[in-house]
Design brief:
The complex is a heterodimer of chains A (225) and B (401). Chain A is α/β, with parallel strands linked by helices. The longest helix of chain A has 11 residues. In chain B, strand 9, helix 3 and strand 10 form a beta-alpha-beta unit. In chain B, helix 4 runs antiparallel to helix 5, helix 4 packs antiparallel against helix 8 and helix 5 crosses helix 7. The chains are: A alpha/beta (225), B alpha/beta (401).
C-alpha cells in the first residue's frame, strides 16, 4: 500500500490522457457519478483527485506517512491506515465503491481484504499486477529465477508484494467467495486494454494487470460488457 | 546546603495579572443576570464575561470566521504582544499575514476560556456576591462549559456558522466538543494533538500538578489573594512537571543533553548544575508571573472530566453521527501526552460515522509542544486543509464569498 506499489514505477510510464493515467481513467469510468468512494492504498492521491474532479465524494487510506501527508496537502480526505488491519473499523455499506489499486498483492490476507471491500462498499474495484503475464512466465521458465519487470522491479527479498496471483487465480478466488464480476479489463504494459474479444487465457498471458469491478453474490463472469 | 536556591519569586508584580482577570487588555463580552451560563455542575453562572481578541474582517456573508481554541495555559492573545509578559502571541507560527490562518483572509476569533485568568470569568475574577476573588467558591467547569460560553460569544458576534474551529491539546478537546454539540455551526475543524477523552496517565499528571499547588503553604486553601500571599513555588513545580510532558526524551537530549549550566564541574549541591534543570526552573518561574494558581486547578480538572463518548452511551461514533463537518486530525510521532493512538481512535469513530476526515501523523521529535512550534509539514497540511475547505465553502483568496 506504500507509494512504491502504485504505478507508475521507474521504468515504464503508463500512457496518459489529458494528464491522467489510463488505468486511473479506466477505474474512474467504472464509478457512477456522485457516488461515495473509498480508495484503499491511495498513494499520492492522483486517482482521488481525478474522482473528485468528477464530483465524486472520495476518501482514502494510505499506509505511508509521506503519501498521506501529500494527499492532505492536496485537500483530500485521506487517513493513515493499513488495509489488513483498519478496514474492519469501517461500517457495512459505508461507500458505494471501494477501490484497491495495485495493493492486493501487498496485503497479508488478500481474501479477508477482498471480503472487507465488499462489506464496506456496494461494489469494489480491484486492480493488481498479473503474475501470469508472459514476461513473468518466461523469466521463471527460462531464467529460472523470480520474475522482475519494469513495473515490479524489486527483488524477491525486498519486495512488499507477498501474495502475487494471476488473473486466472483471482477469478477463481472471486468464484470461491461468491463475488460477482461485473466488469473485467486486462491492461498491457502501457496501460492499454487488451482487446475484449480475446479469451481468458490470452488475458492471463498478455495482461500486465487486471482491473475488476466486483459486487456481492451472483456467479460467473461476463467480462465482455 | 547554603547554595541551594529556591525557585525565585515572580519578577512581575502579580497585580498586573490580577488586573487582567477582571479588566482584560482585549475585547470583552459581558453577559448579565438574564443570560446565565448553564454549567454542567448544575450552577447557572451569572453575570459572567468572556475576554476575546479578533484579527481580520468578517466578510459580508459572515462565512470566513475561524475560532481558535487555546490550550491549558494559553489565552486570547494569539497574535499580539501579551499584556503581562510583553512577549509575542502564542501561535505566531500558525496565525498572521502569509501564515496558514491569515487575517487578510479570515476573521479570526480567540477567547479566553471560562475558568481562565486573562479576562474571562474564573476563580481569579471578583465574585460580585462577595466583592472578593472567587477562589474555590468558583463552580467546577468542564470543556463543554467552555464551548457553551464560546457559542454565546459567537451568537453575540452574529455568526451562525463558523468556517473552522481550530485548536491543539485542550484546544483540540474544545474543537471536538464544538462538533459534537453544534455540528451544524461548524463547517470544518482542525483538531491537533488531542483526544476525545483524557487518559488515566494524563489525569495522574494533572493531579500531581494540583497537589504541588495545594501543598504550597502560601496557597492558603485558595484564598492567597485575600491573605496577600502567592503559591508561586507550588505552581512553578506544577508547571515544571507538566512542561516535561510537553517535550520528548529526544528533544530534551538534543536541546540539553547532560550539559552543565555556566560551569565546568558539578557543584556537589542541589543547585541547577544541569542546563535542563535551569531551563525547567525558568519555565516554572516565568509561568507563575502570568498564570493564576486556582485557575490552573480548574482548567486541569476540566480536561480530566472530558470524555465525549461517555455522553453518548460510551459509543464515540454516536457523537458524530450524520455529521457534515470536514475534519482534519493531526498528531505528532513523539507526542506521548496525546499519542497518535488517541487520534487514531477518533479517526476510526469518524470513519464509522462516515464523516469527511483527513488524518496525518507528523514526524517530529518535539513532543506535544510541536503544534506550537515551527514544524513546516504540520503548517503546510493545515494551510492546505483550510484552503480546500475554503474552496468548498466558496471562499475566495481574499476571504470574500
Amino acid at each position: 500500500m506504500s507509494m512504491q506499489q502504485t504505478l507508475p514505477l521507474p521504468g515504464v510510464a503508463p500512457e496518459r490522457t489529458g494528464g491522467y493515467r489510463r488505468d486511473h481513467l479506466l477505474v474512474a469510468e467504472m464509478v457512477r457519478p456522485s457516488s461515495r468512494v473509498l480508495d484503499v492504498g491511495c498513494g499520492d492521491g492522483e486517482l482521488l483527485q481525478l474522482l473528485e474532479s468528477r464530483g465524486i465524494d472520495g476518501r482514502g487510506i494510505e499506509l505511508s506517512r509521506e503519501g498521506v501527508n501529500g494527499c492532505v496537502a492536496k485537500g483530500l480526505a485521506v487517513v493513515q491506515g493499513d488495509a489488513d488491519t483498519d478496514l474492519v473499523n469501517y461500517p457495512d455499506d459505508a461507500f458505494d465503491y471501494v477501490i484497491l489499486s495495485q495493493t492486493l498483492q501487498a496485503t497479508r490476507q488478500p481474501k479477508v481484504v477482498l471480503e472487507n471491500l465488499l462489506r464496506i462498499g456496494q461494489r469494489a474495484i480491484v486492480s493488481f499486477p498479473n503474475f501470469g503475464f508472459w514476461k513473468m512466465r518466461l523469466q521463471l521458465l527460462i531464467g529460472g529465477h523470480m520474475p522482475r519487470t519494469e513495473n515490479l522491479p524489486a527483488s524477491w527479498y525486498d519486495t512488499a508484494n507477498i501474495h502475487f496471483c494471476t488473473i486466472k487465480d483471482f477469478v477463481e478466488l472471486c468464484e470461491q467467495i461468491n463475488v460477482k464480476m461485473e466488469r473485467a479489463v486486462a491492461l498491457d504494459l502501457y496501460g492499454r486494454p487488451v482487446p475484449l474479444n480475446l479469451p481468458w487465457w490470452v488475458w492471463n498471458m498478455f495482461g500486465e494487470q487486471g482491473v475488476f469491478l466486483l459486487s456481492r453474490g451472483g456467479q460467473g463472469s461476463d467480462k465482455a460488457k | 546546603m547554603s547554595n541551594v536556591r529556591p525557585i525565585p519569586s515572580p519578577q512581575t508584580q502579580s497585580d498586573d495579572r490580577a488586573h487582567e482577570a477582571d479588566h482584560p487588555s482585549s475585547l470583552v463580552a459581558k453577559f448579565g443576570m438574564d443570560q446565565p451560563l448553564k454549567l454542567d455542575c448544575g450552577v447557572d453562572l451569572a453575570p459572567f464575561q468572556i475576554a476575546y481578541q479578533t484579527y481580520g474582517q468578517l466578510n459580508a456573508d459572515r462565512s470566513n470566521a475561524i475560532l481558535i481554541c487555546h490550550a491549558l495555559t494559553g489565552d486570547q492573545h494569539v497574535n499580539n504582544i501579551h499584556p503581562v509578559t510583553g512577549k509575542p502571541g502564542w501561535w505566531e507560527t500558525m496565525v498572521g499575514a502569509g501564515k496558514p490562518i491569515d487575517p487578510d483572509k479570515y476573521f479570526i476569533i480567540c477567547s479566553n476560556v471560562i475558568g481562565g485568568c486573562m479576562g474571562s470569568t474564573g476563580p481569579a475574577s471578583l465574585n460580585p456576591a462577595t466583592g472578593k476573588m472567587w477562589g474555590l467558591d468558583f463552580p467546577i467547569i468542564t470543556i463543554p462549559d467552555m464551548v457553551r460560553a464560546q457559542a454565546m460569544l459567537i451568537d453575540r458576534l452574529g455568526i451562525a456558522t463558523l468556517f473552522c474551529v481550530v485548536g491543539g491539546s485542550m484546544g483540540g478537546m474544545q474543537v471536538l466538543q464544538w462538533t459534537a454539540a453544534y455540528p451544524e455551526r461548524v463547517f470544518a475543524t482542525l483538531a491537533i494533538a488531542c483526544s476525545t477523552r483524557h487518559s488515566a496517565q494524563n489525569i495522574a499528571f494533572h493531579e500531581l500538578g494540583r497537589q504541588a499547588v495545594m501543598a504550597d503553604p502560601d496557597w492558603r486553601g485558595g484564598r492567597y489573594v485575600d491573605e496577600d500571599t502567592h503559591p508561586h513555588r507550588g505552581l512553578a513545580v506544577a508547571r515544571m512537571a507538566a512542561h516535561i510532558t510537553y517535550l520528548s526524551d529526544a528533544a530534551l537530549h538534543r536541546k540539553f543533553g547532560r550539559r552543565m549550566q555556566d560551569r565546568e564541574l558539578p557543584t556537589f549541591s542541589f543547585d541547577a548544575d544541569f542546563q535542563v534543570e535551569s531551563y525547567l526552573r525558568y519555565q516554572g518561574s516565568s509561568f507563575v508571573e502570568r498564570f493564576d494558581a486556582n485557575s490552573y486547578l480548574y482548567l486541569t480538572r476540566a480536561m480530566d472530566y472530558f470524555d465525549i463518548a461517555a455522553d453518548h452511551n460510551g459509543v464515540l461514533a454516536k457523537a458524530f453521527t450524520g455529521i457534515q463537518t470536514r475534519f482534519c486530525v493531526v498528531s505528532f510521532t513523539s507526542d506521548w501526552l496525546f499519542p497518535t493512538s488517541e487520534s487514531r481512535a477518533l479517526v476510526h469513530a469518524l470513519n464509522a460515522s462516515s464523516a469527511r476526515v483527513s488524518f496525518a501523523e507528523i514526524e517530529t521529535d518535539r513532543g506535544h509542544d510541536a503544534f506550537l512550534l515551527d514544524v513546516p509539514e504540520f503548517l503546510e497540511i493545515s494551510r492546505a486543509f483550510l484552503l480546500a475547505a475554503g474552496k468548498a465553502r466558496g471562499l475566495k483568496d481574499d476571504g470574500q464569498s
